[in-house]
Amino acid sequence: MQEAGQGARRDAGRGAHEGGCTCGDCPHGARAGHRRAVAEFLSKRDEFASGRGLPAAVAHSFGASRQWVSDELTQSADLVAERGRAEGDVWLGRVWRRTVAAVWGAVGVLLLAQALTAIGAGWSSARTAGLLAALVVAVLLTGASWFHRARGGVLAPVIGEDNRLSTSRAVAAAWVLFVVYAVLLLAGRLAGASSHTERDALIAGLELARGAGIVTVLAVVCAIAVLVRRVVGLRVLGQRLQKVRADRPRAADLLTDDSGRGSFADTQYVVLGAVALVFAAVRLARRPEQLPDLPWGLAVVVLVSAATYVAGKYAEGGRPVILSVVRAREAGDLDAPIRTGDDIEIRGAGFVPPGAQTADRLSRMVVRIGPVHVHVPLVPVPGGFSNPSDAVLTVPVPADVEPGRVEVQVVTAAGVETNSVGIDVTE
């Protein structure tokens, strides 16, 4: 089996540059290589799930065939993960151009909107100041994108340590950019003001009494971005939260949890923050001589949304736990104590961390039975795996386990250890 696995790896290595290069310098080849690896893995998984593809040397033994299938799928899943990471690195290296194009596209949209609204009303100094402020912000973002082009350009500050877009950082960054634009607009108008009265009015527009609402919202969302990073980091180190790294950031990360399911806390924070930001932008367009006076009612709504988001961060996650360990019994098998070579069924919760449903993550799960570390075998079924799952794991008791009282403990793909449960192993 080892020779067969080594031969498969050699074939995969030789085929890495066939039909499209998969290295980091060829983005189209990296994407094609990842898709090809995924297709090969799915085909192999479904073939094994239907009982085909087993070599005759292991087909007679259930335990040997299960282990052989698990090893083959693990090797194929590792190749898929490697290609996925390569594609993610290439995507990050290329997306900075798209972000720059989006920034300058927004400037073009602003210019078009000002030109259309100026028909009949005429061009004003406020429109010129707004356009110049947008140009300054666009130049700054372009420069930042160039320096962080290997990490996603403009997206670099809002990408978390788990390689996902951070909701708290994205909301805070949006408010920071808006306030910077508003202050630059007022600075441009102040530079072009010709009378003392106009200059005094513009300076008065920056007073705290005029923009207390928006300043409060800005302070809160920025504080939450820092607080959430600290909270998540401490909970991960304290093994109260499981985090696995994503291949690359996705826009859906702003509205979902790590497993890809929609998150109420994240969604309401983004939606209500965006609504308040649109209102502030309209207020700035209508009264460009002062900071947008965000009404306190709307500011309080944003603060309540922020508090809900933080509470959701505290409530999510939890440490994996073993509830019980029993001997796995096949149909027709007699009831008996646990012996070496038997399968045990570990029941609990939280064995599969959010975002770790892929085969390469599942194959990293380990069960410690006494002094022996047993890798959880992958058992394929059409469309997925029956083992391991988030609530049940099935592993064999190896022959190296000494009879007597031994402790069972699960180590998840995120590296978090569960509690220990004792079982009795007989001869």
* Major sheet strand order: 2-10-9-4-5
Structural class: alpha+beta
Q: What proportion of the residues form beta strands (DSSP E)?
A: 5-15%
> Which series of helices and strands comes N to C?
HHHHHHHHHHEEEHEEEEEEE
User: How many E-type strands?
Assistant: 10
Keywords: Membrane, Transmembrane, Transmembrane helix
Protein name: Membrane protein
InterPro entries: Ig-like_fold
Provide an overview of this structure:
- With 427 residues, the chain is of the alpha+beta class.
- The protein is 54% helix and 12% strand.
- The protein contains 11 helices and 10 strands.
- A 5-stranded mixed beta sheet has the order 2-10-9-4-5, with no helix packed on it. A 3-stranded antiparallel beta sheet has the order 1-3-8, with no helix packed on it.
- A hairpin with a 2-residue loop joins strand 6 and strand 7.
- Helix 6 runs parallel beside helix 9.
- It is elongated, with a radius of gyration of 29 Å.
- The two termini are 29 Å apart.
- The N terminus is likely disordered.
Brief rundown of the structure:
With 427 residues, the chain is of the alpha+beta class. It is built from 11 helices and 10 strands.
What keyword list fits this structure?
transmembrane helix; transmembrane; single chain; elongated; five-stranded mixed sheet; three-stranded antiparallel sheet; membrane; 10 strands; 427 residues; alpha+beta
Any chance you could write out the topology, listing elements then pairs?
Blueprint: H1 2-14, H2 27-49, H3 56-59, H4 62-117, H5 125-147, H6 167-192, H7 196-204, H8 208-237, H9 264-286, H10 296-315, E1 321-327, E2 338-339, E3 343-349, H11 359-362, E4 366-369, E5 372-375, E6 379-381, E7 384-387, E8 392-396, E9 404-411, E10 421-426
Parallel strand pairs: 2-10
Antiparallel strand pairs: 1-3, 3-8, 4-5, 4-9, 6-7, 9-10
Helix pairs in contact: 2-4, 4-5, 5-6, 6-8, 6-9, 8-10, 9-10
Protein name: Membrane protein
Transmembrane segments: 101-123, 129-149, 170-191, 211-232
Keywords: Membrane, Transmembrane, Transmembrane helix
